[in-house]
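Quick one, probably user error.
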């Protein structure tokens, strides 16, 4: 069933922000932090908060005329989790979704009116449809309900219970009905969950389609995820304030790198959970065919991720946050109790694995907007026609160090104008949007085709180059006739480019360059080096003394020493001994190179899409190999489901950065999150291939018995370069902590 159970949302993102703010303000008054755990066990106090929520019209969510849908419901659940308030908003949502089309029955219509007004609360107990094998079972016999059910939320304040009583059947039971007994089962959940016992209890039978009951359960799980997210984020906010203020050893603990990196990882986990949850909800409300996949991915990732954040929150608090009167314990309880419900992470992973391994479903395509979707289709057709099997074989026959660049293919991209996708039209480009650029990169990765090169240099020249430089270089970059390598890293300045030592000294009308660059890809066949050099050794700060140059690679004094890198290509060390280039080789102003370096981040954000697309391709190869080998049982589904969820997180983190670029916003720490997560995901994929497929996955290309012809073992080797290249992931975590979380430097 692809159509939503509830009406499509009638509000915008801005309206949801207003909803969040108004609800948060109300809860701060009606459910203050002080005494919240004690009030949770007081039905009268919960009733007061429920009444206030009803006055805001939020207990009608999920009904066709409720004025809101799933995304609004998730906002409500998140705020209740943040406040630690157990008002039965989830019960109202599920009741509305389950029964709204039966409103013509006077008994049900009256009940729905009372639910919306906050005068009735209906708990939905899923029983055999719960997802937890210990949830119990109940069934109807002669108009009466028999059985036992566990893990029921909100039973203490319920006026009715809606019970799954067999295939496609619900039973509506009044809380005061004969033969019903309720026993609290204390544990992590506050208020406690309960066990229900039905002994010939009178009930009203209601018939629903099986998939509708399954979807109700799935939506309940998403709502519990939202509530856990609200609680976990609140705990994280508290510990951030603590890290900024708590002094140990004479400084705030938030300045310690170990704390910064721990909290940066927490931020990645939180944002991954939020982005995947929001994507699932948006797909559901749009009636998307893949919304169940997205929901399972959100649940499979968020359950362990948010629980880990809750643990790390307490680790940073230390003993301060361990007392029950502190806020942190209640949020720990909420995240752990909510995220284990209805089968928890194992069920969500199993759902993903079943779709991928049993049905052969490919990973869903992303909605890149009308322009992005149309361009993706256009690029796919062109690549299929031009990156032919014959051309691939020519590439595969080359020595590994020479693969990855095809001049003829690059020229074809130039004729299409696709070497200039991101260039403004006044510079001869196509001015494609960031999402269109992402579509091109993803399709190139899907086909294993080379991307165009020179984008970083082209954008820098357009912004900082002289008219002569633009005339000399931009047309040749556009046509694919020339290539550049990057002369950034040095023996003492890898991620720390501020401390580069290569010098450029002006001698008459020439610059004399001396120094060493290393870890440079493509230097042995590049036409030019895009080189950063120090032009003012005394500059304070150091980055103010760096300039940027275009250096022809055939200039006397340049020695290139290739080295075979672990991922099967060369990187090079370049020695520059009294290399002389004309004054016109300077790009931009003297000592203005740092601005040019950092301006490249906008281009690199889109290029990073290649990492995520490569991970997606590798994962689909892994799943295909497992399916072909008949390895679809045992521990395999759980591992596949875990990786599928992580792929979804990587795609969402990247998409957020691209969406920010689309809006003209600078994604700094957000892009760092995408880079750090994607590179480490590729490592996990490679390791998983070895675990699941065995030695055949460790054999290289062309070797008999090599699974996926060596692509997976190659990806594992390549992943190391992605993690350490372009600024190590430790540097990325420091950036996230200091710029994204505001921790002290």
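Nope, works fine. Designed sequence:
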């Amino acid at each position: 069933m692809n159509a939503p159970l509830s009406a499509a949302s009638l509000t915008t993102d801005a309206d949801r922000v207003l909803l969040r703010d108004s609800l948060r303000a109300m809860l701060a008054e009606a459910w203050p932090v002080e005494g919240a755990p004690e009030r949770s066990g007081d039905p009268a106090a919960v009733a007061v908060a429920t009444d206030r929520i009803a006055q805001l019209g939020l207990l009608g969510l999920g009904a066709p005329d409720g004025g809101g849908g799933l995304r609004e419901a998730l906002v409500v659940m998140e705020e209740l989790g943040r406040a630690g308030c157990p008002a039965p908003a989830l019960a109202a949502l599920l009741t509305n979704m389950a029964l709204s089309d039966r409103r013509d029955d006077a008994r049900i219509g009256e009940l729905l009116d009372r639910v919306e007004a906050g005068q009735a609360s209906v708990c939905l107990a899923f029983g055999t449809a719960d997802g937890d094998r210990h949830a119990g079972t109940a069934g109807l016999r002669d108009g009466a309900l028999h059985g036992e059910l566990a893990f029921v939320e909100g039973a203490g304040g319920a006026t009715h219970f809606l019970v799954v009583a067999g295939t496609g059947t619900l039973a509506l039971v009044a809380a005061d009905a004969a033969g019903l007994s309720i026993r609290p089962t204390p544990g992590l959940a506050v208020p406690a969950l309960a066990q229900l016992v039905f002994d010939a209890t009178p009930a009203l039978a209601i018939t629903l389609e099986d998939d509708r009951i399954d979807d109700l359960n799935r939506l309940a799980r998403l709502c519990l995820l939202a509530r856990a997210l609200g609680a976990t984020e609140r705990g994280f906010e508290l510990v951030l304030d603590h890290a900024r203020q708590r002094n140990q050893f004479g400084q705030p603990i938030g300045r310690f790198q170990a704390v910064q990196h721990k909290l940066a990882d927490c931020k990645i986990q939180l944002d991954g959970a939020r982005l995947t949850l929001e994507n699932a909800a948006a797909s559901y409300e749009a009636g998307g065919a893949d919304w169940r996949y997205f929901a399972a991915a959100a649940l499979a990732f968020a359950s362990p991720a948010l629980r880990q954040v809750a643990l790390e929150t307490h680790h940073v608090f230390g003993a301060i946050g361990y007392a029950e009167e502190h806020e942190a314990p209640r949020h720990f309880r909420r995240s752990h109790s909510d995220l284990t419900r209805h089968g928890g992470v194992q069920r969500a992973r199993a759902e993903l694995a079943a779709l991928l391994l049993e049905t052969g479903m490919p990973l869903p395509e992303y909605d890149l907007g009308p322009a992005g979707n149309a361009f993706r289709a256009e690029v796919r057709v062109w690549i299929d026609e031009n990156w032919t099997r014959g051309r691939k074989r020519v590439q595969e026959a080359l020595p590994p160090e020479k693969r990855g660049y095809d001049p003829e293919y690059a020229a074809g991209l130039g004729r299409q104008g696709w070497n200039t996708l991101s260039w403004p039209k006044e510079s001869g480009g196509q001015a494609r949007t960031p999402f269109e650029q992402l579509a091109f990169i993803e399709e190139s990765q899907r086909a294993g085709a080379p991307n165009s090169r020179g984008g970083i240099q082209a954008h820098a020249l357009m912004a900082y180059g002289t008219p002569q430089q633009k005339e000399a270089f931009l047309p040749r970059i556009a046509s694919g006739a020339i290539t550049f390598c990057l002369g950034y890293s040095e023996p003492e300045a890898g991620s720390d480019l501020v401390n580069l030592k290569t010098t450029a000294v002006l001698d008459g009308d020439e610059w004399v360059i001396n120094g060493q660059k290393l870890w440079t890809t493509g230097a042995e066949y590049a036409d030019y080096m895009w080189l950063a050099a120090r032009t003012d050794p005394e500059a304070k700060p150091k980055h103010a003394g760096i300039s940027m140059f275009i250096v022809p690679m055939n200039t006397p004094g340049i020695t290139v020493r290739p080295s075979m890198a672990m991922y099967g290509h060369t990187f090079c060390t370049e020695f520059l001994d009294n290399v002389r280039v004309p004054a016109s080789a300077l790009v931009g102003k003297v000592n203005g190179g740092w601005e040019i370096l950092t301006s490249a981040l906008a281009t690199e954000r889109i290029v990073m899409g290649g990492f995520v697309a490569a991970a997606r391709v590798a994962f689909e190869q892994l799943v295909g190999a497992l399916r072909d080998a008949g390895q679809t049982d045992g521990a395999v589904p759980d591992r596949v489901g875990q990786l599928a969820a992580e792929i979804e997180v990587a795609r969402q983190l990247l998409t957020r950065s691209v969406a920010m670029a689309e809006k003209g916003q600078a994604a700094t720490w957000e892009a760092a999150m995408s880079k750090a997560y994607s590179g480490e995901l590729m490592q996990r994929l490679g390791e998983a291939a070895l675990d699941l497929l065995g030695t055949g996955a460790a054999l290289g290309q062309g070797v008999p018995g090599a699974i996926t012809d060596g692509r997976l073992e190659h990806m594992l080797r390549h992943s190391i370069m992605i993690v350490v290249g372009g600024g190590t992931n430790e540097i990325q975590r420091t950036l996230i902590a200091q710029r994204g979380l505001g921790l002290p430097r």
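Residues 459 and 666 are 16 Å apart (CA to CA).
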